[in-house]
Amino acid sequence: MVRAVRTGLRRAIAATAAVLTLPVLAVVSDVTPTASAFSREGLPVEYLDVYSTSMGRNIRVQFQPASPPPPTSATSGAKAVYLLDGMRARDDYNGWDIETAAFEWFFDSGVATVMPVGGQSSFYTDWYSPSSFNNQGHTYKWETFLTSELPSWLATNKQISTTGNGVVGLSMSGGAALILSAYHPAQFRYAASLSGFLNPSALFMQQAIRVAMLDAGGFNVDDMWGAPWDGAWKRNDPIKQVSRIVAGGTRLWIYCAPGGTTPLDVNADPNQAFNANSLESMALKSNKDFQTAYLGAGGTNATFQFPPAGNHAWSYWGAQLQALKPDLIATLKG
Asked: What's the pLDDT at 11?
Protein backbone atom coordinates (compact mmCIF):
# COMPACT_ATOMS: atom_id res chain seq x y z
CA MET A 1 0.00 0.00 0.00
CA VAL A 2 1.27 3.47 -0.82
CA ARG A 3 0.26 6.56 1.07
CA ALA A 4 1.33 10.16 0.59
CA VAL A 5 3.92 11.37 3.07
CA ARG A 6 2.45 13.76 5.60
CA THR A 7 4.43 16.82 6.63
CA GLY A 8 4.55 19.09 9.64
CA LEU A 9 5.80 16.89 12.49
CA ARG A 10 8.92 17.68 14.43
CA ARG A 11 11.25 15.35 16.26
CA ALA A 12 11.39 15.80 20.02
CA ILE A 13 14.72 15.83 21.80
CA ALA A 14 15.50 12.38 23.21
CA ALA A 15 18.44 10.58 24.76
CA THR A 16 19.78 7.80 22.54
CA ALA A 17 22.82 6.09 24.03
CA ALA A 18 24.77 5.43 27.16
CA VAL A 19 28.32 4.59 28.07
CA LEU A 20 29.66 2.21 30.67
CA THR A 21 32.85 3.63 32.17
CA LEU A 22 34.84 1.21 34.28
CA PRO A 23 34.53 0.86 37.16
CA VAL A 24 31.77 3.46 37.49
CA LEU A 25 28.56 3.31 35.46
CA ALA A 26 27.85 6.69 33.87
CA VAL A 27 25.02 7.26 31.43
CA VAL A 28 25.75 9.64 28.57
CA SER A 29 22.80 10.37 26.31
CA ASP A 30 23.03 10.82 22.53
CA VAL A 31 20.53 13.62 22.01
CA THR A 32 19.29 14.70 18.62
CA PRO A 33 18.33 18.34 18.16
CA THR A 34 14.79 19.41 17.39
CA ALA A 35 14.03 18.96 13.70
CA SER A 36 13.92 22.09 11.60
CA ALA A 37 11.78 20.74 8.74
CA PHE A 38 10.82 17.84 6.57
CA SER A 39 11.80 17.92 2.93
CA ARG A 40 9.68 20.35 0.98
CA GLU A 41 6.27 19.51 -0.37
CA GLY A 42 6.14 18.63 -4.05
CA LEU A 43 8.90 16.05 -4.02
CA PRO A 44 7.81 12.64 -5.37
CA VAL A 45 8.12 10.93 -1.99
CA GLU A 46 6.01 7.85 -1.34
CA TYR A 47 5.21 6.06 1.90
CA LEU A 48 5.26 2.30 1.37
CA ASP A 49 4.11 -0.62 3.48
CA VAL A 50 6.32 -3.60 2.63
CA TYR A 51 5.43 -6.91 4.22
CA SER A 52 8.28 -8.72 5.97
CA THR A 53 7.75 -12.46 6.17
CA SER A 54 10.66 -12.80 8.60
CA MET A 55 9.17 -10.24 11.02
CA GLY A 56 5.52 -11.07 10.31
CA ARG A 57 4.51 -7.45 9.83
CA ASN A 58 4.48 -4.52 7.44
CA ILE A 59 7.57 -2.33 7.50
CA ARG A 60 7.14 1.27 6.47
CA VAL A 61 9.57 2.62 3.91
CA GLN A 62 9.85 6.18 2.68
CA PHE A 63 10.83 6.15 -0.97
CA GLN A 64 11.74 8.61 -3.68
CA PRO A 65 12.22 7.19 -7.18
CA ALA A 66 15.26 7.97 -9.27
CA SER A 67 14.87 11.08 -11.36
CA PRO A 68 15.60 11.18 -14.14
CA PRO A 69 14.89 7.45 -14.47
CA PRO A 70 17.56 5.18 -15.91
CA PRO A 71 17.54 4.71 -19.69
CA THR A 72 15.20 2.07 -21.02
CA SER A 73 18.25 0.06 -22.04
CA ALA A 74 19.16 -0.42 -18.36
CA THR A 75 17.61 -3.80 -17.62
CA SER A 76 18.72 -3.98 -13.96
CA GLY A 77 16.69 -1.00 -12.75
CA ALA A 78 17.67 2.24 -11.00
CA LYS A 79 20.31 2.38 -8.31
CA ALA A 80 19.35 3.45 -4.79
CA VAL A 81 20.83 4.73 -1.57
CA TYR A 82 19.49 3.20 1.63
CA LEU A 83 19.56 5.70 4.55
CA LEU A 84 19.49 4.01 7.96
CA ASP A 85 18.29 5.71 11.15
CA GLY A 86 19.77 6.09 14.63
CA MET A 87 19.22 4.52 18.03
CA ARG A 88 15.80 6.06 18.65
CA ALA A 89 14.36 5.40 15.21
CA ARG A 90 10.66 6.23 15.21
CA ASP A 91 7.80 4.23 13.76
CA ASP A 92 6.31 7.05 11.67
CA TYR A 93 9.21 8.68 9.78
CA ASN A 94 12.89 8.06 9.19
CA GLY A 95 15.20 10.48 10.98
CA TRP A 96 16.90 11.44 7.71
CA ASP A 97 13.60 12.98 6.59
CA ILE A 98 12.73 14.47 9.96
CA GLU A 99 16.11 16.05 10.53
CA THR A 100 17.53 16.75 7.06
CA ALA A 101 16.57 17.56 3.49
CA ALA A 102 17.95 14.25 2.19
CA PHE A 103 15.10 13.73 -0.28
CA GLU A 104 15.77 17.19 -1.69
CA TRP A 105 19.48 16.49 -1.98
CA PHE A 106 18.95 13.31 -3.99
CA PHE A 107 16.14 14.66 -6.15
CA ASP A 108 17.24 14.75 -9.81
CA SER A 109 20.42 12.83 -8.92
CA GLY A 110 19.44 9.74 -10.90
CA VAL A 111 19.59 7.70 -7.67
CA ALA A 112 16.51 6.54 -5.76
CA THR A 113 16.27 7.15 -2.01
CA VAL A 114 15.13 4.41 0.37
CA MET A 115 14.47 5.22 4.04
CA PRO A 116 13.32 2.28 6.18
CA VAL A 117 11.16 3.41 9.09
CA GLY A 118 11.45 1.93 12.59
CA GLY A 119 14.05 -0.33 14.14
CA GLN A 120 14.69 1.41 17.45
CA SER A 121 17.75 -0.17 19.13
CA SER A 122 17.81 -2.84 16.41
CA PHE A 123 21.32 -2.25 15.00
CA TYR A 124 19.62 -3.28 11.74
CA THR A 125 20.62 -6.87 12.41
CA ASP A 126 18.91 -10.25 12.71
CA TRP A 127 18.05 -10.92 16.36
CA TYR A 128 17.82 -14.31 18.02
CA SER A 129 14.43 -13.62 19.64
CA PRO A 130 12.03 -10.83 20.64
CA SER A 131 13.32 -8.52 23.34
CA SER A 132 12.31 -10.08 26.65
CA PHE A 133 12.46 -6.85 28.67
CA ASN A 134 9.77 -4.85 26.88
CA ASN A 135 7.36 -7.57 25.64
CA GLN A 136 8.36 -7.06 22.02
CA GLY A 137 5.82 -8.82 19.83
CA HIS A 138 8.17 -9.89 17.06
CA THR A 139 11.81 -10.73 16.44
CA TYR A 140 13.84 -8.09 14.65
CA LYS A 141 15.13 -9.48 11.35
CA TRP A 142 16.41 -6.28 9.80
CA GLU A 143 19.32 -7.73 7.87
CA THR A 144 16.99 -10.21 6.22
CA PHE A 145 14.53 -7.43 5.41
CA LEU A 146 17.12 -5.02 4.03
CA THR A 147 19.03 -7.57 1.96
CA SER A 148 16.29 -9.93 0.76
CA GLU A 149 12.67 -8.94 1.32
CA LEU A 150 12.88 -5.20 0.62
CA PRO A 151 15.19 -5.42 -2.44
CA SER A 152 12.93 -8.03 -4.00
CA TRP A 153 9.86 -5.88 -3.37
CA LEU A 154 11.51 -2.76 -4.74
CA ALA A 155 12.74 -4.59 -7.82
CA THR A 156 9.24 -5.90 -8.57
CA ASN A 157 7.23 -2.81 -7.71
CA LYS A 158 9.57 0.15 -8.17
CA GLN A 159 12.15 -1.12 -10.69
CA ILE A 160 15.08 -0.69 -8.27
CA SER A 161 18.21 -2.73 -8.89
CA THR A 162 19.03 -5.45 -6.38
CA THR A 163 22.75 -4.87 -6.95
CA GLY A 164 25.21 -1.99 -6.96
CA ASN A 165 23.44 0.22 -4.42
CA GLY A 166 24.63 2.36 -1.50
CA VAL A 167 23.94 2.32 2.22
CA VAL A 168 24.57 5.11 4.73
CA GLY A 169 24.32 4.72 8.49
CA LEU A 170 24.86 7.01 11.46
CA SER A 171 25.68 6.32 15.10
CA MET A 172 23.95 2.96 15.81
CA SER A 173 23.61 2.19 12.11
CA GLY A 174 27.12 3.26 11.05
CA GLY A 175 28.59 -0.13 11.85
CA ALA A 176 25.46 -1.80 10.48
CA ALA A 177 26.04 -0.18 7.08
CA LEU A 178 29.56 -1.62 6.97
CA ILE A 179 28.37 -5.06 8.07
CA LEU A 180 25.65 -5.10 5.43
CA SER A 181 28.31 -4.37 2.82
CA ALA A 182 30.59 -7.04 4.28
CA TYR A 183 28.06 -9.84 3.85
CA HIS A 184 26.22 -8.44 0.83
CA PRO A 185 28.86 -6.74 -1.32
CA ALA A 186 26.97 -7.30 -4.55
CA GLN A 187 23.98 -5.40 -3.20
CA PHE A 188 25.99 -2.58 -1.65
CA ARG A 189 28.75 -1.15 -3.80
CA TYR A 190 29.00 1.85 -1.48
CA ALA A 191 28.81 2.04 2.33
CA ALA A 192 29.19 5.03 4.63
CA SER A 193 29.49 5.11 8.41
CA LEU A 194 28.95 8.50 10.09
CA SER A 195 29.96 8.62 13.77
CA GLY A 196 29.52 4.86 13.98
CA PHE A 197 30.69 2.61 16.80
CA LEU A 198 32.83 0.16 14.87
CA ASN A 199 34.00 -2.19 17.64
CA PRO A 200 30.82 -3.58 19.25
CA SER A 201 32.46 -6.83 20.37
CA ALA A 202 34.95 -4.99 22.61
CA LEU A 203 34.09 -5.52 26.29
CA PHE A 204 33.59 -1.82 26.94
CA MET A 205 31.27 -1.44 23.96
CA GLN A 206 29.28 -4.56 24.79
CA GLN A 207 28.38 -3.04 28.13
CA ALA A 208 27.77 0.41 26.65
CA ILE A 209 25.39 -1.07 24.07
CA ARG A 210 23.57 -2.99 26.79
CA VAL A 211 22.91 0.21 28.76
CA ALA A 212 22.05 2.22 25.64
CA MET A 213 19.45 -0.30 24.48
CA LEU A 214 17.81 -0.34 27.90
CA ASP A 215 17.62 3.45 27.73
CA ALA A 216 16.26 3.47 24.17
CA GLY A 217 13.11 1.40 24.46
CA GLY A 218 14.00 -1.09 27.18
CA PHE A 219 15.52 -3.64 24.79
CA ASN A 220 17.54 -6.65 25.98
CA VAL A 221 20.86 -6.98 24.14
CA ASP A 222 21.05 -10.71 24.98
CA ASP A 223 18.10 -11.27 22.63
CA MET A 224 20.03 -9.53 19.85
CA TRP A 225 23.51 -11.13 19.78
CA GLY A 226 23.43 -13.35 22.84
CA ALA A 227 25.92 -13.49 25.68
CA PRO A 228 29.16 -11.48 25.39
CA TRP A 229 31.05 -14.54 24.18
CA ASP A 230 28.51 -15.41 21.47
CA GLY A 231 30.00 -15.35 17.97
CA ALA A 232 27.28 -12.97 16.75
CA TRP A 233 29.13 -10.08 18.39
CA LYS A 234 32.23 -10.56 16.27
CA ARG A 235 30.14 -11.43 13.23
CA ASN A 236 28.67 -7.92 13.47
CA ASP A 237 31.89 -6.09 14.34
CA PRO A 238 33.33 -4.10 11.39
CA ILE A 239 36.88 -4.25 12.75
CA LYS A 240 36.66 -8.03 13.12
CA GLN A 241 35.19 -8.32 9.62
CA VAL A 242 37.54 -5.87 7.93
CA SER A 243 39.15 -8.53 5.72
CA ARG A 244 35.71 -9.48 4.42
CA ILE A 245 34.93 -5.81 3.75
CA VAL A 246 38.20 -5.33 1.86
CA ALA A 247 37.66 -8.51 -0.15
CA GLY A 248 34.17 -7.33 -1.17
CA GLY A 249 35.63 -4.20 -2.75
CA THR A 250 32.88 -1.89 -1.47
CA ARG A 251 33.68 1.80 -1.67
CA LEU A 252 33.69 3.23 1.89
CA TRP A 253 33.23 6.66 3.46
CA ILE A 254 34.11 6.78 7.17
CA TYR A 255 33.49 9.92 9.22
CA CYS A 256 33.95 10.69 12.90
CA ALA A 257 35.02 13.77 14.87
CA PRO A 258 36.62 14.24 18.32
CA GLY A 259 33.89 16.42 19.80
CA GLY A 260 33.91 20.19 20.10
CA THR A 261 31.78 22.87 18.55
CA THR A 262 31.84 24.32 15.04
CA PRO A 263 29.57 26.70 13.09
CA LEU A 264 27.24 23.73 12.49
CA ASP A 265 26.24 23.98 16.16
CA VAL A 266 24.79 27.47 15.78
CA ASN A 267 21.22 26.32 16.60
CA ALA A 268 22.14 23.40 18.84
CA ASP A 269 20.75 23.02 22.35
CA PRO A 270 23.60 24.03 24.70
CA ASN A 271 22.22 21.68 27.35
CA GLN A 272 23.07 18.73 25.12
CA ALA A 273 26.62 19.76 24.24
CA PHE A 274 28.25 17.48 26.81
CA ASN A 275 26.30 14.43 25.62
CA ALA A 276 27.01 15.06 21.94
CA ASN A 277 30.69 15.70 22.52
CA SER A 278 31.12 12.64 24.77
CA LEU A 279 29.50 10.24 22.32
CA GLU A 280 31.48 11.50 19.36
CA SER A 281 34.81 11.36 21.17
CA MET A 282 33.99 7.83 22.35
CA ALA A 283 33.30 6.71 18.79
CA LEU A 284 36.47 8.25 17.36
CA LYS A 285 38.93 5.63 18.59
CA SER A 286 37.01 2.76 17.02
CA ASN A 287 36.92 4.64 13.71
CA LYS A 288 40.68 5.19 13.76
CA ASP A 289 41.20 1.56 14.78
CA PHE A 290 39.05 0.55 11.81
CA GLN A 291 41.19 2.70 9.53
CA THR A 292 44.35 0.98 10.79
CA ALA A 293 42.79 -2.46 10.35
CA TYR A 294 41.44 -1.58 6.89
CA LEU A 295 44.78 -0.35 5.61
CA GLY A 296 46.53 -3.30 7.24
CA ALA A 297 44.21 -5.68 5.38
CA GLY A 298 45.16 -4.07 2.08
CA GLY A 299 42.14 -1.81 1.70
CA THR A 300 42.54 1.00 -0.83
CA ASN A 301 38.96 2.06 -1.59
CA ALA A 302 37.94 4.26 1.34
CA THR A 303 37.76 7.91 2.31
CA PHE A 304 38.40 8.67 5.98
CA GLN A 305 37.19 11.99 7.34
CA PHE A 306 38.46 12.90 10.84
CA PRO A 307 37.99 16.67 11.23
CA PRO A 308 39.52 18.59 14.16
CA ALA A 309 36.12 19.31 15.74
CA GLY A 310 32.50 18.21 15.55
CA ASN A 311 29.99 16.29 17.63
CA HIS A 312 27.29 13.63 17.58
CA ALA A 313 24.42 15.47 15.90
CA TRP A 314 22.25 15.55 12.79
CA SER A 315 23.75 18.79 11.53
CA TYR A 316 27.07 16.99 11.03
CA TRP A 317 25.53 13.87 9.51
CA GLY A 318 23.53 15.97 7.08
CA ALA A 319 26.66 17.86 6.06
CA GLN A 320 28.51 14.59 5.55
CA LEU A 321 25.71 13.15 3.42
CA GLN A 322 26.01 16.17 1.16
CA ALA A 323 29.80 15.84 1.11
CA LEU A 324 29.78 12.17 0.17
CA LYS A 325 26.91 12.42 -2.33
CA PRO A 326 29.09 13.08 -5.42
CA ASP A 327 31.34 10.16 -4.52
CA LEU A 328 28.35 7.90 -3.90
CA ILE A 329 26.62 8.83 -7.16
CA ALA A 330 29.81 8.40 -9.18
CA THR A 331 30.36 4.99 -7.62
CA LEU A 332 26.80 3.76 -8.22
CA LYS A 333 26.80 4.98 -11.79
CA GLY A 334 30.34 3.81 -12.53
From this structure: 34
